[in-house]
Amino acid sequence: KYHLKDKDPAELERLAIECFHSRIRPRISPAGRVVVERHRRLGHLVVLLTGSLEPLAQQLQEELGADLVLASRLEVKGGALSGALSNQRPYGAEKARLVLELARSHGLDLQHSYAYGDHHSDYKLLSAVGHPRAVNPDPRLRLRARQQGWPILYF
Fold it and tell me: In angstroms, rounded to a whole number, what is the distance separating the alpha carbons of residues 77 and 55?
């Protein structure tokens, strides 16, 4: 993130839009879109909780029609990016903490909630909900998902 130091936040937004449309959007799985749409049709609150930078995550939120996005934020000082992350960085145990906070603020029952993760650092998040799903998991998460009896999805 240091390479963004002293850049205008509007430049980051422009780069995020460009990156999303050229690199990320083409890689969104049709099956993944179906899963998100199913949750939306069921009236579930769809939240993107990611360690990715917020401008990229906001593009994905718009593309998928998610209700909320919680993503890594870059610190802005004096109207320019400082090159550092702000205090919000959803990664590892912080994702679980954020989902607990979200559940409290929105009156959600996590035992009836779903979470999807692909990295072993998502384990605590997945453990916090009643319906965890490992998606294209890395080897460590795949092993833990098997041990826990969680569904493993590939798409």
Answer: 17
Structure tokens at 154: 């590939």
Kindly list the domain boundaries of the chain, sorted by start residue: 30-72+89-153
- Give 41: exposed, middle or buried? Use CB within 10 Å, 0-12, 13-18, 19+: exposed
DSSP 138: -
Distance of CA 83 to the CA centre of its chain: 21
Q: How many CB atoms lie within 10 A of CB 115?
A: 22
Residues 6+ apart with CB under 8 A from 99: 47, 49, 110, 113, 115, 125, 128, 129
Contact 59, 24 (CB under 8 A): yes
Topology classification of domain 30-72+89-153? Rossmann fold (3.40.50)
**Could you list the pLDDT tens digit for every one of the 155 residues in the chain?**
567 788 889 999 999 999 999 999 999 999 999 999 999 999 999 999 999 999 999 999 999 999 999 999 999 999 999 988 887 789 999 999 999 999 999 999 999 999 999 999 999 999 999 999 999 999 999 999 999 999 999 99
What's the farthest any 2 CA atoms get from each other in the chain? 50
In angstroms, the CA 14 to CA 114 distance is 32
